[in-house]
Amino acid sequence: MSWGDRVAIITGGAAGIGHASARRFARKGAKVVIADIDQAAGKDACEEIVSNGGQAIFVGCDVGERLDIHNLIAATLEAYDRIDVLVNCAGVFGSGDFLSLDESDFDKVMRVNLKGTFLAGQAVARQMIQQIEREGRVTESGRTYSIINMSSVSAVLALPDRVPYTVSKGAVNQLTKAMALSLAEHGIRVNAIGPGAINTHLAGDEPAEGASRETILSRTPLGRIGDPEEVAGVAVFLASPEASYITGQCIYADGGRLALNYVIEKK
Ligand SMILES: NC(=O)c1ccc[n+]([C@@H]2O[C@H](COP(=O)([O-])OP(=O)(O)OC[C@H]3O[C@@H](n4cnc5c(N)ncnc54)[C@H](O)[C@@H]3O)[C@@H](O)[C@H]2O)c1
Q1: What ranges do the domains of the chain cover?
Q2: 188 CB under 6 A from ligand 1?
Q3: Which of 1, 38, 113, 149 could lock onto 168 through a cystine, CB 3.0 to 4.6 A?
Q4: What is the rounded average pLDDT for all residues in the chain?
């Protein structure tokens, strides 16, 4: 089985970690489907991959809408006829203190980060099972099917002013385990990645600068903010045959954040 035979859907693939993952899978030779709510950025990301010799299509998609997910699967099958990998990267940030948080702000974050991961994961898993029934068990066909959910260190560490985000990522970890158990009998592996602070535009227009950057560095043993490529590399590993015995795990790409139990002094 080579990467050239494999089709990878990356939700949230128009920007940040998803875009880096789409690039990485395309560089390996996989056929990539970028699914994102941002049509302009999604088309640009797709064109960039194609202009560098990769294979990619863009599908406009709101992961919180079941019909959009249905159309995403249909468009993927029409273009490439199969699905081997799903990276659930679409996500939104949600700040707001517990006591003052609006119900609508809670729902907005849960809808994308949790429900979107569930909807895309379920639809893709159903398609993968059809392929397995058609082509034989995974080991017999030499294929490896992999679903990767984007979690966060926030699944473990709570902040009172990030209630919906923290809750959504904790739930993504549990969803990952439940999916892994449910899909193990089919040979489909499901894992999560828990990034620490990564240099993207997730939490605002500009990546962390000034005081907020200093705060992040004071909690990051490796002493720097991570690059989206460093998360994308973990996604490619988890989707590869090298990870063939790994399922139900969350791998934290966090510069040592979760191991730390003190504040690093500024040098
Ligand atoms: N950047 C970090 O420090 C960090 C840390 C931990 C976890 N994460 C997680 O990584 C994932 C990617 O985040 P990022 O930092 O690359 O952010 P980003 O904002 O750069 O990219 C997120 C992408 O998701 C898309 N998106 C948002 N809502 C969508 C929807 N409803 N349907 C489809 N697409 C939608 C956006 O258009 C965007 O292209 C998220 O799940 C995030 O929670 C990021």
Answers
A1: 3-259
A2: no
A3: 113
A4: 95
In the CATH scheme, what is the homologous superfamily, with its name and number, of domain 3-259?
Answer: NAD(P)-binding Rossmann-like Domain (3.40.50.720)
Amino acid at 71: N
Q: Is 90 in the pocket of ligand 1 (CB under 6 A)?
A: yes
Candidates 165, 245, 252, 262; catalytic one: 165
Q: How far apart are the first and last CA of the chain?
A: 49
Is residue 119's pLDDT more than 80?
yes
Q: Is 245 designated active site?
A: no
Taking the C-alpha atoms of residue 82 and residue 45, their distance in angstroms, rounded to an integer, is: 22
Token output for 79: 């273009």
> Where would I find the H helices in the chain?
16-28, 39-51, 66-80, 103-110, 116-135, 138-141, 163-183, 210-217, 228-239
Would the pTM count as exceeding 0.85? Answer: yes
- 204 contacts 261 by C-beta, under 8 angstroms: no
- The pLDDT tens digits for 200-214 are 999 876 777 788 899
Ligand 1 atom closest to Cα of residue 225: 3
